[in-house]
């Protein structure tokens, strides 16, 4: 049996949870399951780690990435469309929600729904209407639907009206972190860690307010953000809070991120909404104790293996983080619970459950 994975997410995502999900899924498929992908123009960091069936990947150095990814998308979609029309595989698994394939497909297809960020936070995206329109169509016509959490399945039912029995919940797995740890200068001896984008629903501003409270009692504590550098507006805001000289943001390589997780006093994920939350598993894998907002899918994923706070309450957030940072007993307890909880989330399980769906569809 062969599965076709198209170009979509690899055309525009350099790194990120969706493209990592597909690469890990493919790499953990049983030996009797082959896969097909189009030759791609891509700058995705994970494609080099794929099983050897993947065609060579090329990229350009012209213009900026915003321009390049539009060119990649146009070229890659033509290649995907041609291969879908030609057939030669048993199941189609699109990597995002574009519906270009619907009139060309000759096989069943399964779609994975990752979150409802565009529906819940439309103001943060320029392509909201297009994504939602195509997503609804792709989901409505799918032979099977995968949701990456029970919370996402409930959103499918509540927002799109999809019957729950059409949706299979299949969790992500924990991806191995780099075995090489490269220290990040400037973090100080004790720091709390934030990873990822800092757009509004990620709730970074409330974390900054919570850090102000913590910093009053612990002037040596630092706030480290792994991701893009602070914008001018962010720097001004942090300075106005009196924590500008205690906060840093930096791009982190895989080896640097592994070091940050392994050395942080507490990994904090204050987001108001996520479809799953892969950084939780990354932190656990590195032995980092975590503090999480009691929102969206987080209670489902983390259970008792986190210190909890309400996302809109900076004082409660500071208390939950402080309990982790300053209590040896709390850190030890959370690390033990996390090590047990991690057993629920493996890519082998993800691939096995997904393979069951592939086999059932190919038998139709």
In brief:
The protein is α/β, with parallel strands linked by helices.
Which keywords apply here?
43% helix; alpha/beta; 364 residues
Number of strands: 14
Q: Which structural class do the helices and strands define?
A: alpha/beta
**Distinct helical segment count:** 14
What is the H/E string? Answer: EHHEEEHEEHHEHEEHEHEHEHEHEHHH
Give an overview of the whole structure.
It is a single chain. The chain has 14 helices and 14 strands. With 364 residues, the chain is an alpha/beta fold. The strands form four sheets. A six-stranded parallel beta sheet has the order 11-10-9-12-13-14, sandwiched between helices. Strand 10 (222-226), helix 8 (232-240) and strand 11 form a beta-alpha-beta unit. Helix 7 packs across helix 12 (314-326). The longest helix is centred in the N-terminal third of the chain and has 22 residues, at 65-86. It starts with a strand and ends with a helix. 43% of the residues are buried. The model has no long low-confidence stretch (mean pLDDT 95).
Give the secondary structure arrangement, pairings included:
Layout: E1 2-5, H1 8-12, H2 17-27, E2 34-36, E3 40-41, E4 57-58, H3 65-86, E5 91-93, E6 110-113, H4 117-120, H5 128-141, E7 144-147, H6 150-160, E8 167-169, E9 191-195, H7 204-217, E10 222-226, H8 232-240, E11 247-250, H9 254-263, E12 266-269, H10 278-285, E13 290-293, H11 298-302, E14 307-309, H12 314-326, H13 328-341, H14 347-362
Helix pairs in contact: 7-12
